[in-house]
Design goal:
Layout lengths: L10 H5 L8 E2 L3 E2 L1 E2 L10 H14 L9 H20 L8 E4 L2 H16 L5 E5 L8 H10 L2 E5 L12 H4 L4 E7 L11 H10 L3 E5 L11 H4 L3 E5 L10 E5 L1 H6 L10 E5 L2 E4 L13 H17 L1 H19 L5 E4 L9 E6 L4 H10 L2 E2 L1 E3 L4 H7 L4 E5 L6 H17 L16
Parallel strand pairs: 3-15, 5-6, 5-7, 7-8, 8-9
Antiparallel strand pairs: 1-2, 4-10, 9-10, 11-12, 13-14, 14-17, 16-17
The chain binds 4'-deoxy-4'-aminopyridoxal-5'-phosphate.
Length: about 425
């Protein structure tokens, strides 16, 4: 089917819901926002939910017996239920509101990890993890002496599942793996990995920061033990994220942060913890961000995640086709059929930073650097890459604008090391 055929969702129409997309870069150039893997933009419905909460519904939650506190507590708990349904969790107490994916993973590494791991134990990660799913485990290894092992990435950007036979043993107590790589876009076979890990008795945490926003998630179908994601990557506010955990596991885990709300009783001699989910929500939680995250959930449900992922697949296919016309461009990661809406690439002979700056001058926002995945970049033999990442409001036309901007950037830039410039195709 030709790439320009009808899209499964009307991104042009959806764009009207996102005030920021009308922005002109430096008051001149229309914005092409291709930095969605870093953070997404908010529709009016989410902005309105924030305004409504602060204007009419705001108080601290779970604390007062007054009307306003009951109102905000109700909205906050409705948000929990909305998230529970969104990821098909069995019970709302399995949804812990955290500041984001990073905080969710740290919670598990600290609480479950410190309580359960010893020097003879192993934690299995992969070579494509975001630093958020590496550093907390390095810290855990420093505290407990446990050993970290890594599932390798193949040259075409897939996880090498053949290594599971050797890596998953009775010593493996925990597996933490990214569902969709924030660099390669690779959609990992999470369900298979979880099943294999469970065979050796290991628990599994899924870093779903780049998957929950873009495709339907069913934690029960996955059989995931823990799953972490962030509000700001799914049209919601920053400052809120989620840790899903199986009730039985969360129940058995010690609290991570101590303070108000997470206690049942405190004396000068000690404390007893509150029940789930409050046990893991010490202090005042992200009340309005959680309420607005629910508005984002409702928006995504109305659009339909199947349409979102199909739309992004279309954009990714077109991006691959466009980039393949430029000599010297190397796309990191697999073919579009195996990835989400993330396309990272390097261009032989050109400094990635110069290219990113030239794109920015033409209103195209892409990401530059190691994207918080230094070990993966080292493995791929590149120090920095350019990354274009899409969401439901991006259009095929924007990829044409990107191609024109890249073409003119490469024409104007001097290739480094006096190398032959990448040949620049006609873009139409
Ligand atoms: N994991 C992945 C795969 C990510 O892409 C990100 C954000 N770039 C994170 C974890 C961390 O998310 P946050 O910064 O919202 O905590």
């Amino acid at each position: 089917m030709p790439l320009d055929d009808i899209l499964p969702l009307d991104a042009h129409a959806l764009r009207a819901d996102f005030p920021i997309l009308q922005t002109r870069v430096r008051d001149e150039t229309p914005l092409v926002y291709f930095d969605n893997a870093a953070t997404t933009q908010r529709p009016r419905a989410v902005i309105d939910a924030i305004t409504a909460a602060y204007e009419r519904q705001y108080s601290n939650v779970h604390r007062g017996i007054h009307w306003l506190s009951e109102l905000s507590t109700g909205l906050f708990e409705d948000a929990r239920t909305a998230v529970q349904r969104f990821i098909r969790a069995e019970r709302s107490c399995e949804i812990i509101f955290t500041p984001g994916t990073t905080a969710s993973i740290n919670l598990v590494a600290r609480s479950w990890g410190d309580a359960n791991l010893r020097a003879s134990d192993e934690v299995l990660l992969t070579e494509m993890e975001h630093h958020s799913n590496l550093v907390p485990w390095h810290q855990l290894a420093q505290r407990t002496g446990c050993r970290l092992r890594f599932l390798p990435v193949t040259p075409n950007g897939l996880l090498d599942l053949t290594a599971l036979d050797e890596l998953l043993t009775e010593r493996t107590r925990f597996v933490s793996v990214v569902a969709v790589s924030n660099v390669l876009g690779t959609i990992n076979p999470i369900k298979t990995i979880i099943a294999r890990a469970h065979q050796v008795g290991a628990l599994v945490l899924v870093d779903a920061a780049q998957s929950v926003p873009h495709d339907a998630t069913d934690v029960r179908d996955l059989d995931a033990d823990f799953l972490a994601f962030s509000g700001h990557k799914m049209l919601g506010p920053s400052g809120v994220g989620v840790l899903y955990g199986r009730e039985k596991l969360l129940d058995a885990m010690p609290p991570f942060l101590g303070g108000g709300s997470m206690i049942d009783r405190v004396t000068l001699d000690g404390f007893t913890s509150a029940d789930l989910p409050e046990k893991f929500e010490a202090g005042t939680p992200p009340i309005v961000p959680a309420i607005a995250m629910a508005a984002a959930v409702h928006y995504l449900e109305a659009v339909g995640l199947a349409a979102v992922s199909a739309h992004e697949r279309r954009l990714t296919e077109k991006m691959h086709a466009v980039l393949s016309r430029f000599d010297g461009v190397r796309i990191l990661g697999p073919d579009p059929g195996l990835k989400g809406g993330i396309v990272s690439f390097v261009i032989d002979g050109f400094n990635a930073q110069d290219v990113a700056m030239m794109l920015d001058e033409q209103g195209v926002a892409v990401r530059l650097g190691h994207h918080c995945a230094m070990p993966l970049h080292a493995k791929l033999g590149v120090s920095a890459s350019l990354r274009a990442s899409f969401y439901l409001y991006n259009t095929l036309d924007e990829i044409d604008r990107f191609a024109e901007a890249l073409q003119s950037a490469l024409r104007m830039l001097k290739p480094k090391g006096g190398k032959r410039p990448a040949s620049v195709p006609a873009v139409g």
